[in-house]
Each structure stands twice: as structure tokens, then as C-alpha cells.
Amino acid sequence: KAFQLLKEKMDKGLFPQWVLTDPDIYELEKENIFGRTWQFLAHESELKEPGDYVTRWMVNDPVIVSKNREGEIKAFLNSCSHRGVHLCTADRGNKKTFTCPYHGWSYNLEGELIGIVAGNKVYGGEMDKGDWGLREIPQIASYQGMIFGNLDKDAISLEDYLGEMKWYLDLMLGRSDGGMEVRGLPQRWVAKANWKATAENFAADPYHVQTTHRSTVEMGISPEDPLYAGYGHQVVMENGHGINVITSKTGKARVPFQATPESMWPMFEKNLTPEQLDIQSRVTVFVGGMYPNLSFVSPIHGTEGHLHNYLNFRLWRPIGPDKVEVWCWFMIDKSAPEEYKEAAYRGYLGSFGPTGTLEVDDTENWARIVEVSSGLMARDKHLNYNSINNYLMGFERVEPDSNFQGPGTAYPTTYIDAIARSMHEQWFKLISEGVMMKEEIV
Ligand code: FES
Ligand code: FE
Q1: Where is the Rieske domain (predicted)?
Q2: pTM score, two decimals?
Q3: What is the DSSP string of 59-126?
């Protein structure tokens, strides 16, 4: 029924507000979106030695991601085969075996059941341990060090899924020798928010910056010009992915190469194509997302004389229609000078993360959206994304810029709802496909 109501609106080109907190829509999303798309698990730099592991979640599926003796990355459901207990509750560590706290069954780094307490005495010789290993995540793959999992064994490959986005990942993650590395631990916290709103806030919404983050203007960190986050390009890509390449009025950043140390620039020249290098030399902020729930921001940050650049990846793990667990990774060029890495890390902690100034600004708005989306009147209210009466931000008033150097459809402003609309299309497509599949089976 929720799907029928949704379909009526979407067919008319309307995006209704109630879908942000509706429990039935949320159930459809869990199965049809998160059950079938590639979910970010970890970065390879979090798993250095054989036996290193981290524990993560794919919405409600707990996952152990570990490195085996051969150096391969494995991912298992973090639930014992015996009675289902949550096997490993540590965030990370190094182990040869995972032993269940309930009855003591133990598993090796291949996920194989290798030990049963009093096994031969209570189970006899007939029990085949091979039948009772940990369940493997159906697909895992990595790109530029980013490890993803997919619960659908028939889903398209990660590379095909990322598609045009790979070019931008190569730029951000592959510009330096040795790539990027995670520094510190991923911070995580719970926010009152819907995952669609948080993902969209990052991937599709530089327009909020001048109002939500007004304090940065008042502190003199950001310019007065209300269009300042709108200069540059918004690039729409297949499968709901998108990136904003924010520059400035002149098409250049205040400082070249995002204020990275000059000693790093020859490395960028070596590792990037001329087109990527040109963008990297001019950009102020990259901000975008991989559908459905992985976002990133790579800013120039700080005050004059103390500017730095870093890459922040964040996963919006839905834990309900109106709650997300935010997972937030700080990443920096592995081969950057050590003191620069530390300065950038401190800058990041002051702005993003649970106590960061920018984070608090955003969190407040996300909470305000879900607070008011489950009332009766919200059921008949649509939001301003669509071309009703042509009240449209940027889009359709602006032609794509065919001179932009990167793949995707690039609009010459980031104050535009192009990515937001493509995310909604992808969202509705995945839900519809799932519902159709079910109907066929019935
Ligand atoms: Fe894990 Fe029994 S539930 S050993
Ligand atoms: Fe923000």
C-alpha cells in the first residue's frame, strides 16, 4: 500500500515528504536498496597484518572484515552458526581465531569452524564441521583501497556499479604514491535523521552551506558571497552517484592543489591524467556520494597560513526510518609529510565528527526534517525538487557544460537539484524493481 501511494506521487513527478519517516517505505528500502547495492565496509589501510579485523554493519547484518594469512580480505556474517550469537563485539583487533562466548565454538580467519568444545564427546564423529562455517558475505570487492560488500550474489560487479565515479575516485584516492590511508579510528554516533536526507545533504546540496554553516562566514573562514559554494560543477553519474566540484567565481581555488604541501604536487602530476590534474589544481572542495549511503568531502580547510586538505568518508547506516548511525573516516595521503597529516587531522576533528562545528549545524537540520515528516498533513505534502510550475533550482535553466573534463553530466553550478533528482530516480527504480520481482514470484 505504501508503494502504491508512493508510485502515484512519483509518476506525477512529485517527491512526497512522508517517505522520509514511513516505516513501510523503510522496510522496502532495507530489502530492495540495501539488500542489493554495494555497501562500504572498510579501507584496506585498516587491515594491515594477517589476522587484523574490523567489525562493521550492513544495515542490520553484522560483518567481520578480516585479512587472512594469504593477505586476502574476507567478510563474514558476525553471527555464530550454533545458536546465532553475535560472535565478535570488539571494534577491531588481531586474531587467529574467533571464539564464541556462548558455547565456545571457534572459527579461523577463513570462517571455517575449527573447534567445538567437547566436540567428539557430544556430537560424535558424524558432525561435519565443514557444514557449519560462518556465512560469507555473498560478494566483496575493493576499488582504490575501498572495500565494499554486497548481500546480493547476482548484483553487478563493483567496478560496473561505480562506473563513471571511478574516474573521480582515482583522482581523490589515487593522486598520491601509496594512495590514501585512514588515520585514527572511524568515529561513529547516532543522529536523528533519515539516511536519504543525510546522503543527499552531502552528495547533492552545496546550497545549504551558506545558511546552515553561516558561522564560518562570520568567523571569516568562508566568503560573504552567498553563491560561494555554488561555483564549479555538479556532476550527475549513473546509478545515483554524484560529485560537486566546487571552485570559486574565477573557476580557481584561492590556493592551488587544495593547499597541499608543494612537495606533493609533482606526485599528483605523475599519478593523474592532465584532465584530473587540471581539476585538482583548481578545486576548493570535492563533495559527493556513492549511492546509496556513502558520502565524501575533500575540502580546503582552516585559516590563512594553516590551510590543509583531507578526505572524509562517511557511511550513513540506517537504524530506523528516523535514525542513522554515522560512521566517519578521516583519510589522508599516505605519502604526505607527517606534520601535515597531523595538522589536517586536528583541523578535521574541529569541524567534522560529533563535536565538530560544521557537523552540529547539519545534524540540527536533519533532526528538524524527521521531526515534522510523520504528521497527517505531511502525507499530502511534496517537497521542492520537481518541475511543478517550473519552480526549479538551477536545473533546466542550465545546460550541461560539455567542456567539463570529467565523465558524467556536468552542470556549471552546484546550486542545482540534478544529483538529488537522480538519487530519487535511482531510489524509486530500486524499490519498484524489488516490488515487481516479489509480485512475479507471488
Ligand atoms: Fe556460539 Fe553456541 S551460540 S557456540
Ligand atoms: Fe553541511
Answers
A1: 39-134
A2: 0.96
A3: TTEEEEEEE-TTS-EEEEESB-TTT--B---SSEEE-SEEE-TTT--EEETT--EEE-TTHHHHHTTT
